Every structure is written in C-alpha cells, then in structure tokens.
Amino acid sequence: MILLLDHILVDNRKKYICVFSCFLLTMSGYSTTHNGTMRTFESHATLRTSASRRLGYILPHLSSYNGFGADEYINWEINMDKFFTQCRMCDKRKIKNAASSLTSYALIWWKDLCDYEEDPQTWKNMKQYMRDEFVPTSHSIKLICELHYLQQHDKTVEEYYDALNTLLLRCGLDESQEAKKIRFLNGLNNDIWDILIDMEYNSLYDLFDLSCEIEKQIKYDTYLAEI
Asked: Given pLDDT bands bounded at 50, 70 and 90, which one contains residue 61?
C-alpha cells in the first residue's frame, strides 16, 4: 500500500513539474506541440509585425490620398517616403503599397494609368506621375520660388535648416549635397556667413554644425558687449 502511494505521488510530482516547465517555456517564448516537440511561440501582435515586414504583404495603416488637393498630395508623398525609409522594400513593393493607400479619384486615376499607359517601374517614377497629375504647375512654381528666396533672417540656424529641408521635400527636389550646401550658405545671415566662408567642412551636416557654433559665439559676444 505504501509503495503504491509513493508511486502515485511520484507520478503526480512528474506531471506537476512537466506542466510547470511548459508554463515557464511558454512565458520565455516557446510552446509545445501535441507530440512534445518545441517550437517558437509568437503573439498575434508579433505575427502581424513580422508579416508586415515581408515584402509580399500590403502594409496596413498607411496614410491615404483621395486625389484632391496639392498640399494634401505632397503631405501624403512625404509620409510615404518617411515610411519607406524605415522598411527594406524593393520598388515594386513600394508601388504596390503606395497604390493600396489611394482612394476615390486618385485610385480611379491610378487604375486608368496602369490600364492605358506605361506602368511606373520605380517609386520615384510613380511620384513624378502623381505630381504631374495632382500638383498644378502654378503650385510647383510657388514652392520653388519660396525655396529660392528662403533666407534665415530672424530664424535660428536650426529653424532655417529645418525650413530649407522641408521646402526641398515639398518641391520634390532630389539635389546633390553640393547643391544643398550652396543653398544653405546663400540663405545664412551675413554675420554667420562672413565667419563660415573661411572655414573647412565636408558634409552639409558639418556646415550646419559649424553654423550653430558660430551663432552661439555671436550671441555670447553680443551678451558680453551689453554688460
């Protein structure tokens, strides 16, 4: 009788240890199959995230565009560009995901373009088609003029730098680093430009960083002069 009780207790203890072990493994990221083998455990949220990263999937929650408004189109394009920089995706999938976010007139236009004209082969090519359709020439000229005449004036260097980059995006211009440096220099206030012009720099960020340092020094010198 004692031997029988010991045997039952041992069996129950084994079951308890087995169940507790499975619980710990599940909490650590694993689950068991019916035959006892182990496989990775993933939550629904994890599965959705991993699936969205695969190139074959249409990604949810993208900003949409209905085909009305030049500024609305430009905002949509900028948001899509920001999104695509965070994803490793070929042009074909970029186009597929961008097209999936079109609604109303924009979607009708896109289907007609693909049915009766040459399909865009790159995301850059698709953006050009859409700008030609949804951004009037007058609006493009207005933005380019704003960019051309942009000056620092009473803005800080950082505010001026942000305004320059924003306008470049809104104009849809993909300029070289050299062209951007020239634009940045041309709009700086004279007191910063006079010091910066004799300094050495390589990248646009170097130029921006030096300008911020000069600005701080000028403000400090002005403060000392007023004491």
From this structure: confident
Q: What is the pLDDT of residues 120-168, one digit of tens each?
A: 999 999 999 999 999 999 999 999 999 999 999 999 999 999 999 999 9
For 186-223, how does the pLDDT look when each residue is reduced to its tens digit (9 = 90+)? 999 999 999 998 898 899 999 999 999 999 999 998 88
Q: Is 31 helix (H, G, I), strand (E, B) or coil?
A: strand
For the entire predicted model, the pTM comes to 0.69
> How many CB atoms lie under 10 A from the CB of residue 198?
6
Residue spans per domain, the chain: 2-41, 50-135, 152-226
Per-residue H/E/C for the chain: CHHHHHHHHHHHHHHHHHHHHHHHHHHCCEEECCCCCEEECCCHHHHHHHHHHCCCCCCCCCCCECCCCHHHHHHHHHHHHHHHHCCCCCHHHHHHHHHHCECHHHHHHHHHHHHHCCCCCCHHHHHHHHHHHHCCHHHHHHHHHHHHCCCCCCCCHHHHHHHHHHHHHHHCCCCCHHHHHHHHHHHCCHHHHHHHCCCCCCCHHHHHHHHHHHHHHHHHHHHHHHC
